[in-house]
Amino acid sequence: MEERGWTSKVQLEAMDIEGIDVAVVYPSRGLFALTIPAMDPPLAAAMARAYNAWLYEFCQENPERLLAAGMISPFDVGDAVAEARRCVRQFGFRGVFLRPNEVNGRNWHDPYYEPLWAELEELEVPLGFHEGSGSQLRQVGEQFGANTLLKHVYSHPGEQMLAVGAFCAGGILERHPRLRVAFLEGNCGWVPFLLWRMDEHAEWLGDVYARDLTMAPSAYFKRQCFVSVECDEEPVRHVIEAIGDDRIVFSTDFPHGDSKFPRAVESFLQLPISEQSKKKILWDNCAAYYGLPA
Description:
This protein is α/β, with parallel strands linked by helices. Helix content is 46%, strand content 10%. It has a 7-stranded parallel β-sheet. The radius of gyration is 18 Å and the shape is globular.
């Protein structure tokens, strides 16, 4: 679920309409707050702190149903570590999020970010990557300029695929075997192809470029990663066939223009997958990712 400037009561009413018991709140406008290149790190950290303080209050309307994923700033890894700790220990947030776009010329598997991955692992809190449709940071799809159709087609899954590569083939999950990572709001149909291609390249070039890996990249994904499915995403059946149904979580994308509200859950229940898979995707896998009771 998402916020877009309305009250938590409206959020809860929308959940009731959809038949959703619990939602984890990610931002809409907040996704664009930290997307300016060379942003002043103290300013970025202050914006994250302010957003998280607001989000905590937003969820207090019904903290059993409204859960939070906190904003952390990638412009200074020390700030990100400190705010992740604050989100979990002071606010009780269930996760933190980043956008997948590269910041300050550093890919996510750069050693600079190691303290953050270690802290999230220690806190036992998951990391969610959530893309947006625009960014002043470098973004896949920007070559399409003002053509929102083409930019939106490529930006979300393209950026998520790059992040998956850094975590699964770049060695992050080898070094942090207890870290949970999700790639959200970018569809899931691309997962089988990408995992196959990473495995094929690791077999071909891994002795030079992936010496630290002890498993195929796809094995790290199946052990530690999650990906979200949209309510009408029929290709999910191919994802289940390729990697099983343990690593897929449900997203409504409410209240964005491509959301199917108020029939998102109804649409999902019509997908050509088993009832067991539907149950796991709607609750069990989400509970496993966020550390909720099964």
